[in-house]
Give the backbone structure.
Amino acid sequence: MKIDEIKDMLPQKPERLETVEEPKRQELVNACYDLVGCLHEVYKQLGSGLPEYIYQEAVAKMLKTQGLTFHKEMKFHPMFMGEPLEAYLKMDLVVESTVGNIIVECKAITQLSEREHYQTFGYLRATKFPMAILVNFGTDRRAQIERFHYADSKLYVF
């Protein structure tokens, strides 16, 4: 398989990310307010330097204490030619909210790169879930949190 063919198979990162307009932006911010608070609390208590799976478990524990409904390591079988594949995506956490499911992808690396963005974009495109939060616990000062909204085959930042 040629490199160009592989590139065509990857989820495409949008040319530019658009910002969600008010009042939709505020609705999305409100829907993930408690969730983002949980992520900050995990970083506050654990700091940086631990493996990803430690942060995933800590986030799950925080979500549980907040009474949020979530699924850990949720498997999703993408559709191909109208049928689900046997292969699956495994998302770190999926949190149920009033505006739909929110994918939470946890990382513990020095800096987020396009690789992590492509993975998150691919999850949103495959599942059609409306939101994702990409959180990086590997930074020194605070958790790096990026929020995305997926609607009408477009990806937005909020």
Remarks:
- The domain at 19-157 is CATH 3.40.1350 (Trna Endonuclease; Chain: A, domain 1).
- The chain has a mean pLDDT of 89.
